[in-house]
């Protein structure tokens, strides 16, 4: 919109023939232009609103910077705290996994040891005691009958109780871990539901750009309004320099308040030539055709500013929502951190119970099973060797018996020879020798016997020991049983196999 004071407008007016050949402006035309220009000044309310928008946007721009920095800081804190909580959870899992791996291995070793013991016990259960070794009429016994099963049963019960305690501790730890996992899942879910930050390193905040555009619209709107004000002043000046113009303008505007400078009763300060007046009217007429467009432009820019402000407000509202959600996350993390102490305590108790109770008990059980299996294997081997020993003793007994019988025959033979020799001597020389020359002259020969000797009971060899009446001073040695050849061969095979 041109201005008569503008050099460009004046030059344009002088250089264009149409300026002088425009339709002459009547008083009615001037009043119409004046009323339209006065009405266009109502767009000032848009400028007031624009000023409020700029002020509000400036405050939001500052809040945006604060919220963005605060939210970014909180997000970093949240990431660090979540990483720490997950590290603790992984640590608990690591402890449990290590313990569980060793527990399974020890349980396997325990089962292996117990299976070996059961295998040995089965051998004892299936190994009968030879009937010739037992008193007559005794029920058939097996090697297992000589075993104290209470030792095995008590150890089995002790190990079962130990495993039950471990399972209870692990169940308690499992409940604690489930609670921990639930808390972490809720935390991650809440974090996922936090509104994504509308500004990132690759996508910075749009508010500075929006605010810059908003200021540009405000400036352009203000400049457009200034052109309307200049056009209005031009209309007033034209009416002052037109006869009857003031009265016509007052009649057209009615009771509407007259802005400053509308006092038409004041005479024009300076006279104006006809050429100057004609140029002024020409500019006024040309500008009058642009008034509606300028007003529309101001309205459009006002609407655009309102739209830009809504975008800024939406962005800041998003940041506020993000900040509120992040504060809620911090509160959740605080609660989880308090609960983590209990989870760590439970994990430590589980690990301590493993180190102080379960592990040493299982290791001791494995060692005890192995010791018992070894002892019972030695027992089985000893029984096999006993059978071999009995067979050996029987052979030595038979040999000694034969030797004794042979010796007895030799002694009996010598006794007979001695008896015959004495009788022959008596017949030959007896009549010539007096009996008192040697008291043993007529004695029979001494008889020797080879016989089994009874064993003195322990402690009976002491000097001066007297037996009670009716008490046997000796005990008879038990006869060595005769074992079947196949029994001895099986025993020898077992002994050789285990050597």
From TrEMBL:
The keyword Nuclease does not apply. It is found in: Cytoplasm; Preautophagosomal structure membrane. Residues 403-421, 464-475 have a biased composition (Basic and acidic residues). One of its GO terms (molecular function) is molecular adaptor activity. Residues 40-433 form the Autophagy protein ATG17-like domain. It is a peripheral membrane protein. Residues 1-22, 401-421, 455-477 are annotated as: Disordered. GO terms for biological process: autophagosome assembly; autophagy of mitochondrion; piecemeal microautophagy of the nucleus. GO terms for cellular component: Atg1/ULK1 kinase complex; phagophore assembly site membrane. Keywords: Autophagy, Cytoplasm, Membrane. Residues 1-18 have a biased composition (Low complexity). The keyword Membrane applies. Pfam families: ATG17_like. Autophagy-specific protein that functions in response to autophagy-inducing signals as a scaffold to recruit other ATG proteins to organize preautophagosomal structure (PAS) formation. Modulates the timing and magnitude of the autophagy response, such as the size of the sequestering vesicles. Plays particularly a role in pexophagy and nucleophagy. Belongs to the ATG17 family. This is Autophagy-related protein 17. It comes from Aaosphaeria arxii CBS 175.79.
